[in-house]
Hints:
Blueprint: E1 2-8, H1 19-24, E2 27-33, E3 49-52, H2 67-80, E4 85-88, H3 90-98, E5 103-114, E6 117-118, H4 120-123, E7 135-143, E8 150-154, E9 162-165, E10 169-172, H5 183-190, H6 192-198, H7 202-229
Parallel strand pairs: 1-2, 1-3, 3-4, 4-10
Antiparallel strand pairs: 5-7, 6-8, 8-9, 9-10
Amino acid sequence: MKKALIVRHVPREGAAGYLQPIEAAGFEIERIDVASPDFLDADLSTPDLLIMMGGPMGVYEQHIHPWIPHQIEKLAARLEQDLPTLGVCLGSQMIAAALGARVYPGGHMELGFAPVTLNGTGVDSPLRHLRDVPVLHWHSDTFDLPAGVDLLASTENYAHQAFRRGRNLLALQFHAEMGEDPRFEDWLTHFWADLDMAKQCDIALRQDHADHGPGAVAAGRAMIGEWLAGLES
């Protein structure tokens, strides 16, 4: 059976709604946390599919998190081989860094449910399933667009919301996997300072989660399912 490895930067940010299409595509899922003693020795080029999820840290905080440069180095080696790789939020920023792009604070906390705007390339990509669908945004960092990739989606505050390279690399700044996972409540309580910065109300976010979450997850699963079906071996 094909192997998929999920890299978790914090336990509260897992693959959530994306698990279903990954398993449906025939992958046996394994997980590793960056806090694990085994992480520094992990070979990120071995899995058939690598999925890197989100986290509150910044790619540029290598002085605080010494595992970051190790992950970027191993990720760069994987990307040189064009092996199937998916990055979400921090994971997308890691991909950008591994491709030589700058990752930096964006100056604006983007938090809440809102649709992304698909550009010409995105309309014909698996992101077409997200058209007019509010998805969860929760970040304040951004990145320069790496060379040789196609920009798929943007928002008003952040132009670089998603990109791909060929069929095997997909980077998503937003969280279309979140909408039915009970860990959303943990995000609200643990990342309360983000809500203050974004001037967001936790009660309103809970209501948006209830209203938009199932649709976001359904669209996100369709997106990932189509992307996985198009992978090149």
